[in-house]
Amino acid sequence: MIGIFTNETSFFNDIAEEIRLFTDITDIEFIESEKDIEAVSDYDMLLCVVLDENDNEWNVNAHIVDGESYSFKYSRVIGDELVIKRYKKRCMKIAAYRVLRKHFDMNIPWGSLTGIRPTRLVRELLINNSAEETKRIMREDFDVTEEKWHLAEEIVNVQKDIIASTNNNDIDIYIGVPFCKTRCLYCSFASEVRSKKTDMGAYLKALKEDIRLGSELVKKYGYNVRSMYMGGGTPTVLTHSELEDILSYALSVYEGFGKELTVEAGRPDTIDKKKLEILKKLGVNRISINPQSMNMKTLELIGRSHTPEEIKDAYYMAKNIGFDSINMDIIAGLPGENIDDMENTLNEIIEMSPENLTIHTLAIKRSSRLKERLNEYPLPSGKDVDIMLEKGRQTAKKLGMKPYYMYRQKYMRGNFENVGYAKEGKVCIYNIDMMEETTNIMAHGAGAMSKRLFDGEKRIERIPNPKDISTYIEKVQIVSEEKNKLFMV
Ligand code: SF4
Description:
The chain has 16 helices and 18 strands. It is α/β, with parallel strands linked by helices and about 500 residues long. It has two domains: about 1-105, Double Stranded RNA Binding Domain (2-Layer Sandwich); about 165-485, Alpha-Beta Horseshoe (pyruvate-formate lyase- activating enzyme), CATH 3.80.30.
């Protein structure tokens, strides 16, 4: 167990996040009084982060009891309460990160950054700082490595026009189908396996009602639909008629889909020619076919009921039907995989040459089967995952792609990131809007999250749909009333 003492108690969680960058120990406890530090002996480590302030500066001292210490000084910031809180938090985290870095003798690629998307931070910094100063802050204050700085900078540049093209009254529509054919080993989503017992009819009825109510709000308050995204789960787990029915219904009530209509056809074993033709006929102009790995032994190990050949068949079938924007997701750091396995996956990807490639880093999520049975699965080291990601970057480059969006998750192997790459003119608008939180989102389906942006991007309010399927079915009407308040103008 790890103990934290701080005189700025509202930052306890932020300091705990810094600790989680360095260790798998998740048991972290807040120590209330300095006196208790002397009394406690059953901690693996005790971290004290104390802020002193005078008229001119903040001085944060971080020290590990019986170990290293580090002091970070920062000119006192003048501003409203929120601004002061943000800068104080930054100082506390930097001091904590730097003492932990000394203690663990380890650098983290994204430095002390947690809880904020690096690209969003870069965009915010560029509002009041030159490009040079922004780089300095990222590199020297937040300790982001040169390589990661370049990645963030490149993505911000690629995103610039898409973000500039969004207006305050633009909205993206999300439709969630949280059902899958089997459950992947690493999955932590609230998605259910579709079985004979699944009452899909009841779910789709509620989903239609949710979509109808949402479309009425969109029309009533004058929002402009920018894109539509059907995700999951695996939406193609629906039968031909279910898929056609729900998608055509959404298109009819929303009167179109804006510029882009994506459907995650995630698993090749849920796709056939007829389903792809239905999607094409309805105007879907972007799909995902996600291998995760092109190695049979891994697909078996992670609980995906398909072969690498089925992935290729599904991909070429989609190409023949005329899909010219196909994304493929892969994961670096899967159990049992080494660098050669990743190279094999990447070579197969090169051969298929999709328009988008999303390279995830394995995250060991609390609610996954993987987390429960971690000692049964050999995982590649952080160093190997880094090499895998580098090979992924080179592959994307070879395919003429640029990174266009990125996000980090908790519990990722090696504290890396997930990056979406795209060929010229093939970026996914929805992915940028959603990840960068630059456009309103009207979300339908169990567990889906609606978002409204206020004052540009400064304040975001969210309304989640219940994750549990039966609660969702029961509460569609009530959630819609909350959405009404959210989207009211
Ligand atoms: S396909 Fe995605 S949502 Fe479905 S079980 Fe696998 S990780 Fe979870």
